[in-house]
User: What shape does this take?
Amino acid sequence: MRTPRKLFLIISCLALFIFSCTEEKNTQLPEDANLTTTSDFEQSLINKVGSETATQLIEDLNDSARFPINYDGQLCPDAVNFGEAVYRGFSNLNNADFWYFNGSAGDVVSIQVDRVSCEMDPVMRLYLGSGDTSSLSYLTGADDNNGQACAPACYSFADPKINGYVLPVTAVYTVAIWDFAGGFCTSGPQAYSVVVTGNSCDADGDGCNDDVDPHPNSNVDPTVNIDGCDSGVDNVFIDCSSLNDLIGDCAAAAANHGDFVSCVAHLANEWKNAGLISGRDKGKIQSCAARADIP
Assistant: This one.
């Protein structure tokens, strides 16, 4: 009679042990599941530093605190840009370098970051928008997925690359780059290069890259239109600026209506002498300027 009872106790203890182990595992699953289902980028942080540290880093990355962004420059197609990141910047966006580019919906872009300092551990994130951190919407990121520029050293791991990402809308995009865990064998700025392909540096299509274009978002109306008065004159481009852009400059600089009319008359004379418009066109433009409620 003792044997069945002993067997029952053994089976009961075994069942209790299995249940307790299962319960313990289940209590740990939600935290890991939340991390591993967020993004490949965040999973790479988990693989690199562990889930506990990654959780804190992800919280820092998603911090909605506002601070102004200083852009290192514009990323143009196939142009290699160089930057220097704060060493051991970890995930704090205050320590990131920021770059921007103009993109159109449907553009397929690739962004590659290669460390120049062998000790650097570059990390990259792509955002929609520009300005301060409250104006940025995270899209995707990359870390340790593009080979290595030099021999592994100082936790340098590998370089990041975003490959074949389809831009969702026509807008300005921001690329954030920082040194994650490099620099443990050295100190000082960590150098890298970044290049983007598949985008455009000419938002208004006037043949001038935005970084040198006096009017990167030109008024491209088909005709010269001043305060609702359509002159019917073709709105052509002159040195990266449309006629409407130049008239807009007159409006912005004018102290009074007389100044505005005089400025437009001066422009119209120049355009006529250059053969861009006819004498009749000149009269139409000046007539619209005289009737406009500007400034």
Observations:
- The chain has a mean pLDDT of 80.
- Residues 2-36 form the longest helix (35 residues).
- The helical segments are 2-36, 40-49, 51-61, 243-253, 257-273, 279-291.
- The chain is about 35% helix and 25% strand.
